[in-house]
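Handout, section B. The chain below has 507 residues.
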Amino acid sequence: MKPKIRRCGVLMHPTSFPSPHGIGSLGDEAFSFIDLLSQAKASLWQILPLGPTGYGDSPYAARSTFAGNELLIDLRTLAYEGYLDVEDVLFHPDFPSGRVEYGSVRNYKEPLSEQAAATFIAEAAKKEREAYQQFVKENQWWLEDYALYQVLCRTYHDSRWFEIWPKKVRLREDTTLHQLKKEHAKAIENIQVQQYFFYTQWANVKQYANKKGIQIIGDIPIFVAPDSVDAWSHRDLFKMDEDGRQTASSGVPPDAFSDEGQLWGNPVYDWEAHKKQQFSWWIKRIEKTLEMCDIIRIDHFRGFAAYWEVPKGEKTAIHGTWMPSPGKEFFSALKAHLGEELPIIAEDLGVITEDVDELRISNGFPGMKILQFAFSVEQGKLDANNTYLPHNCEHNSVIYTGTHDNNTSRGWYESLDEQTGDAVRRYLECPDDQVVWQLIRHMLLSHAKDAILPMQDWLELGAEGRMNIPSTCGVSNWSWRAENLHPVEWRIERLKSLIELSGREGI
């Protein structure tokens, strides 16, 4: 009988790489991180969505579901290629080493990316120009709309197309759009070239990872941002009125954590319109992501079974309704295009109903298990049947110490009450200073086929290393950066030893 492949990976978004330019990039640090994974025998690298971020800088509220984040473009590579002066790259502001200050980064990097694109347009060699033209031809179906959208966001100093932009622009009147494209042709091409830079650099990173035996796990938020080009250019696929304003919004109902639920504000899908188009937009979305990654994690997977719809005008999510989604039909259509074995991880956290489990299991998608959710204590006793405990994890699952939305494992443990903390130590059979490594060890020894730890847990960082606090918009969200990509040798060797011990070398 063929042994089941077991793997280990690390969650690290490219923005978190150390870099002299204030934010991680797709240059030397990306390749160094891949080398680090390879040295430790990790075979998975998980990232967050790669789209261009807007207000709040959340990768889960990108301005496009197809475009790449221009802030990740490596300026040093552009200088090596002759599109920037070396001095522009060598002399830069004194950015903080442990955090991304997005405003400062934008002020520095955006003008240089635009300058490099302008140089490319004026001076690129024939071979490079042909490669760019091929990129534009293959991606025109989303690229032109995105470039125009970005130009208009700057023109009107606001991305809220549904509130701020003139009506003819908001509703995409043909003559108006044609005139705008002529008027802003140079700026549109500049943005298209920047996307070419991003995709070229990312393709090199992915190719290097795959050569090293490392697969990349990408991420798709189920909903799009209201102030995105997707919502603006595909109003017919969302529940919107004739003026382009949402008639309903997404969210989650009241639960043990919130009496009012969560009103996310994303536009919700008009699934009947998607069905009439044979889910073509969604299929393109999955296909494009699979060009960039090897595996996809779908955030809020339960929304493919049913989603919480909140009517227009509501201030909270209390008065919402569960609305059915055509998940079975969609995944059937997706398999017809991409084959039966879809490389998808279903984020099935929270309150999950039988229909969600049935949709996931019938399609063979692994669910997620979070160790920080495993230690439920009642009347002083650990619930040994908690499905997140390592000994209860099924093989077709992906186990995490924590995710980008959780505290770091060190920060989580230090925040526990005495009773729960005692249960954690007794389960792991270790003192305080070994809790993080024992969580990693038990995770790797679990039956789950894949195991992922955030980079912060490899470094045993406390709460200061947290990536995001859900339902907040603080300056610390999405801004964590590693000080360097050279953990002390014993950390590399210890993880490598545990990966070998647990048979998670991915072969």
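Note. The first strand starts at residue 7 and ends at 11. Compare this with the example in section A.
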